[in-house]
Amino acid sequence: MGRYLPRDQLLLIGSPMMEIGGSAHRVSDWLDSIGFRQYAETFAQNAITWELLQDLGDQDLRELGVSALGHRKMLLRAVTALRSEVPGDPGVRSPTVMHWARGERRQITVMTCDLVNSVELSARFDPEDLAEVVSGYQSCCEGVVLQFDGYVARFTGDGLKA
After folding, report:
1. Contact (Cβ atoms closer than 8 angstroms) between residue 161 and residue 115
2. How far is CA 1 from CA 4, 7, 12, 35, 129, in A?
3. Any residues with CB less than 8 A from the CB of 118 and at least 6 apart, and which?
4. What is the predicted pLDDT for the residue at 25?
5. Which of 43, 62, 128, 157 is 20 to 30 A from 18, alpha carbon to alpha carbon?
6. Position 50 pLDDT exceeds 60
């Protein structure tokens, strides 16, 4: 005997989406969650899977028939939000994101240097003289950081971050 399928799965029969299974349903659910359920059938007919969703651009949306500029902009924002999800999130299955998650591990050291009692020094020195003292201190610290192949990220007040 025949098996009855829900309406949203009927369009999958005989299409490339049949192979993808739950991926089309996931895209449909996502479109529904962001208020664009009207495009679910079009996305399914064009074999837009969860994995491909994150690669969509403005021209792709035009080709899919999303003619309203506002709809395209909102869909692109939602796609961008998908791209920025945490790689370990089970909701993200993009090969690009997964490649990034397997990226290279590197050990880094972050150092903050600060001139001790700089407030007390400001009471004893003129601003111009104090600026020379702080500049000399920062130059000395920068030299040491560079000696160890480091990088000074920022000079902050009377110190630095490396």
Report:
1. no
2. 10, 19, 20, 37, 94
3. 130, 134, 157, 158
4. 80
5. 62
6. yes
Cα Rg of the chain (Å, integer): 28
Position 29 confidence tier, pLDDT thresholds 50, 70, 90? confident
Averaged pLDDT, 66-82: 88
Asked if residue 42 belongs to a domain, the reply is yes
103 pLDDT band (50/70/90 cuts)? low
Residue 74, token pair as written in the block? 């909102």
**Amino acid in position 152:** V
Asked if 84 and 145 sit in the same domain, the reply is no
Rounded distance between C-alpha atoms, residue 85 and residue 137, angstroms: 42
Whether 143 is covered by a domain: the verdict is: yes
Q: What is the reported pLDDT for 162?
A: 92
Residues 81, 13: one domain?
yes
